[in-house]
């Protein structure tokens, strides 16, 4: 595939245009038209190559636009692995080359390749692990980068016309007034950096507070923009007009951004997911203080590998005379129902079976059986008991594992734990 002859393209577009002619174009607001001609000429030559390279971008953009909130954490890890791996590879090659040169030896091709691969795997793996376990930190940094790019880039683009006008004026006047151009550039860069840092901090903090909604918005924006520009490239290849390409790109991007956000919002409303917590073992699709009836919803979600550990001091004594409550609640302390409370009915089952359980966990929720345990409220005495329903990994009360099928009465403050950090407390 032939390389682009940028010099020839610029020569065809600009011709023998003098500095005075360029200054006249700038003063008459023709910079956009001039840039459009240059870009049209470049894209006319590069369009087939760009179209071929845009096929992966199209697939990535569709996934990001419509499923971004579901796959964003994985994509963040992949990006961290790639960026960190490339950085590590460069550093290892640089250190290897430096050490070989300091010893009076030339770097070997095998050493460069080996150390490059080692650096990519080592640093890439560390960055990927950090992105997974320090998800919100990386999310903040990425949002900060987006905000900084928008603030800095936008301000520089606004100032670019004024800087170009001053440069062309200086060229036309034989260099007079050129002394102030470096200061103008430095001042613009300084102000742009300040605006970028401020906007980045604001966007980063907002991302941490409203993580889910901003992830939906940013993924829909990035994905919609990628898909819109890629599809508009097809129109450009067919018609060869940069103006049409711009219009189609903008219209398609706006429609896809809005549609992508709407699709993600509706999917999350049907099966919510939690962003910003380590645990991604499923979405909470209940309103606080309510629980679903068996069979009302399907069980869906995303899980992690089980991590089981006793986190409480054992309290082996059995309770013979339970307190008789007027009303009993089950309060979520940790896990996917953290912060939720449920009124305990006469029979309240917890587990993955949508037809037999009232408080339902997704199939991928680690360590939770189809019917994990059942809470029973005696309407006459007000006493509450718990029974482990022969679960695979067991149910614990105050750190003591219940015998399978055994019934135990509960008192206020008793803590129930099962699966991967699913912790509840009894309150009357």
Q: What is this structure, in a nutshell?
A:
By secondary structure, the protein is α+β, with helices and mostly antiparallel strands. It has two domains: 6-270, no CATH class; 329-427, Tumour Suppressor Smad4 (Sandwich), CATH 2.60.200.20. It is built from eight helices and eleven strands.
How would you explain this protein's 3D organization?
It is built from 8 helices and 11 strands. It is elongated, with a radius of gyration of 31 Å. The protein has 2 domains: 6-270, no CATH class; 329-427, Tumour Suppressor Smad4 (Sandwich). Residues 276-320 have low confidence and may be disordered. 56% of the residues lie in helices and 11% in strands. A hairpin with a 3-residue loop joins β10 (415-418) and β11. It has 428 residues and is α+β, with helices and mostly antiparallel strands. The protein starts with 5 loop residues before the first helix and ends with a strand. α3 packs across α7. The chain has helices at residues 6-14, 19-27, 31-102, 109-133, 135-172, 180-209, 211-239, 242-270; strands at 329-334, 341-343, 347-351, 359-360, 373-377, 384-388, 395-397, 400-401, 407-410, 415-418, 422-427. Strands 2-1-11-10-7-8 form a 6-stranded antiparallel sheet, with no helix packed on it. The chain has a 5-stranded mixed sheet with strand order 4-3-5-6-9, with no helix packed on it.
């Amino acid at each position: 595939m032939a390389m682009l002859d940028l010099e020839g393209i610029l020569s065809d577009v600009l011709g023998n245009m003098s500095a005075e002619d360029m200054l006249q174009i700038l003063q008459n607001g023709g910079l956009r038209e001039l840039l459009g001609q240059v870009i049209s000429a470049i894209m006319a030559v590069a369009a087939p190559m760009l179209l071929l390279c845009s096929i992966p971008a199209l697939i990535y953009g569709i996934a990001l636009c419509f499923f971004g909130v579901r796959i964003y954490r994985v994509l963040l890890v992949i990006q961290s692995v790639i960026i960190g791996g490339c950085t590590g590879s460069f550093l290892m090659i640089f250190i290897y080359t430096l050490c070989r040169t300091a010893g009076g030896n030339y770097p070997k091709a095998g050493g460069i390749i080996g150390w490059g691969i080692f650096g990519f795997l080592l640093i890439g793996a560390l960055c990927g692990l950090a992105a997974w376990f320090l998800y919100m930190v990386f999310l903040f940094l990425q949002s900060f980068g987006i905000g900084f790019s928008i603030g800095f880039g936008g301000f520089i683009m606004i100032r670019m016309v004024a800087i170009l006008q001053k440069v062309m004026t200086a060229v036309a006047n034989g260099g007079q007034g050129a002394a102030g151009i470096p200061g103008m550039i430095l001042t613009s860069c300084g102000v742009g950096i300040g605006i970028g840092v401020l906007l980045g901090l604001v966007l980063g903090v907002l991302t941490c507070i409203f993580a889910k909604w901003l992830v939906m918005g940013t993924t829909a924006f990035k994905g919609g923009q990628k898909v819109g520009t890629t599809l508009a490239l097809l129109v450009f290849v067919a018609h060869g007009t940069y103006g049409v390409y711009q219009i189609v790109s903008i219209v398609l991007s706006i429609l896809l951004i809005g549609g992508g956000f709407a699709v993600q919002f509706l999917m999350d409303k049907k099966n919510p997911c939690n962003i910003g917590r380590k645990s991604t073992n499923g979405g909470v699709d209940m309103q606080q203080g309510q629980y679903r009836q068996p069979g009302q919803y399907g069980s869906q979600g995303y899980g992690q590998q089980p991590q089981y550990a006793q986190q409480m001091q054992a309290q082996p004594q059995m309770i013979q005379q339970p307190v008789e409550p007027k009303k009993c609640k089950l309060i979520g302390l940790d896990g996917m129902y953290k912060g939720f409370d449920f009124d305990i009915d006469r029979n309240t089952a917890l587990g993955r079976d949508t037809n037999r359980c009232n408080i339902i966990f997704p199939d991928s929720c680690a360590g939770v059986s189809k019917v994990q345990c059942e809470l029973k409220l005696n309407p006459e005495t007000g006493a509450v008991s718990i029974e482990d329903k022969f679960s695979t990994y067991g149910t614990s009360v105050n750190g003591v594992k219940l015998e399978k099928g055994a019934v135990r009465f509960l008192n206020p403050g008793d803590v129930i734990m099962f699966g991967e950090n699913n912790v509840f407390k009894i309150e009357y």
